[in-house]
Every structure is written in C-alpha cells, then in structure tokens.
Amino acid sequence: MRESLGDRAFNAVNMLVLVVVSVVTLFPLYYVFVVSFTEPGEFADKNGFVLLPGRWSVSAYEYLLSTSAFIKATGVSAFLATVGTLCSLIITSAFSFGLSRKRLHGRKTMLFMVMFTILFNPGIIPLYLLVRDLGLINSIWSLIVPVLTSGWYVILMKSFFDSIPAELEEAAMIDGCNELSIFVRIILPLSAASLAAFGLFYAVAYWNTFFSAVLYINDFTKVPLQIVLRNMLIDSDTAVGGASAVEMASDKQLPTQTIKMAAVVVSTLPILAVYPFLQKHFTKGVMLGSVKG
Asked: Which residues of the chain have pLDDT under 50?
C-alpha cells in the first residue's frame, strides 16, 4: 500500500522527535561515561567539558577501587541486592501461593489486610519506631526486614499462581507430595518468568536503597553505595571514608569530577549488566500475573 505525502511527513516528524528525545536522554549517560575515562590532565585543560577524550584513562576507577569506604559500601549494596532479593522472593512467592489456595482458612481476611497495606501507608515515624523496637537500628537487616515484601507484588504473583491448573496439584498429591513439595518442585519451576521479573524489581530497589539507610544507619561502615555516592556528588568537600573529595583528588592528582563520574558509572553498571539477561522474562512474567487474575 503506497504511503501518501501526509503519511511520509508524519513519519518523518515522528522520527525526528524520537531522535531528539533519544539524544537528550542518552547524552547525560554518554557524558558521565566519557568524563569518567578522561585523562585528568586533559579534563583540566578543557575546563571540564569533554565530548570525546583524546587520552583515555582508568585512574579514577583505580582510585575508587582502592578506597576502603567505596569498597565497603559496594559490598553492602551487593549484600542487599542478593540476600535481600532472595529473601523477598521466598516470602512473596510463599505468601502468594498460600493466598492462591482457596481452602486456606482466613484467606479473605489476609487478602483484605494485603490490600489495606497497598492503600494505606503507616508513615515514617511509626515505621522507625517499629524498627527501633525490633533492635534493628544501625543494622544492615533494617534495610531488608521492613521491605521484605510488597502488597502489590503479592497480589500480582497470587494472580499468576491462580492461572496454574489445579489438576497439576491434584496429580502431585496423588503421587504423595505434600504442600511444600508441590510448591518447590512444581509451582516454582513453572513460575520462572514471574520470579525473574519480580526479582529484578526487588534487586533494583535494594541496590538503590537510600532513604531507609539515612533513617536507620548511623555507622558509616554500614551504609550502602547510594549514600556514599550522594556524599560525593552533593558537595566536593563532603567527607568520604575520612577524607574529603578534594583531598582524595589531590592525593592522586585527579579532578574531583572524574571521581564522581566514575562512581556513578560503577553504581549503575551492575543493574545494566543484569537487565539484558532478565529482559526476556520481564514482560511475560508481569503480564501473566496481571492479566489472568
């Protein structure tokens, strides 16, 4: 079918708008990446604006990876993203599976309580008091336990479990499986797409933990990476690991800006590296849980 002049003009305008939006969106990421690899002397000579470095350097990354505060914060964020995600998936999937069984006593009451948590938030002060009374202040677990699951994710995963034929469970019970065996051997393998999608949600949330760390963590050796990154970006005189960013730069003859950009790249790289492997499960897992409910 031949396109009219108006259709071609419309497609051209759409393409132009998409190109402009793409450039505006990707340029900050490109600039951060380029500056982080720019040779310190060249960055200083060009007054801090580099589109394409003539001399590439990894000195900013070498310094970051030799800084104990940054390494410890990266380890804390990695612990949150791995252990926290695993715990959240276990709690969410087990709770959702239980709610999907119609023979569960008190099922409607628990569903009402889950929906209530979606509509009403307890607030910062009650949550802080709860964490304090649990003895979790200044503990890494204070960044995991209060956010172990989400009512919205529980509802979506429950809807996914509802779509699994009940005949599979009945056949497994005839073969002698109990509820735990059915959940581990049958339900979870069938839920790989859903688990991958929600696992990505949880991993990103744990990796980007910031506000809860500000509330509950007082020991700088236990803060996640986002706190250290915020301290480095908000003020060049902010202390990081006992030394200011200016002092860090002067010790290694590095511009402060290159260290900041390298820290941004390091903090975003893990999620960017994991996402392509889970992308194929992302849409499938979420849609199965939301459409077939």
From this structure: 237-253, 286, 289-293
Q: What is the pLDDT of residue 173?
A: 84
CA atoms within 13 A on the CB side of 216: 29
How many residues are there in the chain? 293
pLDDT at 237: 44
For residues 58 and 262, give the distance between their C-alpha atoms in angstroms, rounded to a whole number.
9
CATH number of 59-291: 1.10.3720.10
pLDDT of 290: 46
Tell me how far apart the alpha carbons of residues 273 and 264 are, in angstroms, rounded to a whole number. Answer: 14
pLDDT on residue 122: 81
- Counting beta carbons within 10 angstroms of the beta carbon of residue 24, is it exposed (0 to 12), middle (13 to 18) or buried (19 or more)? exposed
Domain borders along the chain are 5-36, 59-291
Instruction: Give the separation between CA 260 and CA 176, rounded to whole angstroms.
Output: 59
Look up residue 221 and give its two tokens: 């050796």
What pLDDT, in 10s, does the model give residues 29-83?
888 888 888 777 766 666 667 777 777 878 888 888 888 888 899 899 999 999 9
Distance between CA atoms of residues 151 and 114, nearest Å? 5
The tokens describing 278, both together, are 């889970």
Of 270, 288, 272, 275, nearest to 193 by C-alpha is 288
Q: What integer pLDDT is reported at residue 104 of this predicted model? A: 82
User: Would you tell me how many other CB atoms lie within 10 Å of the CB of residue 20?
Assistant: 10
| Token representation of residue 161 | 């479990």
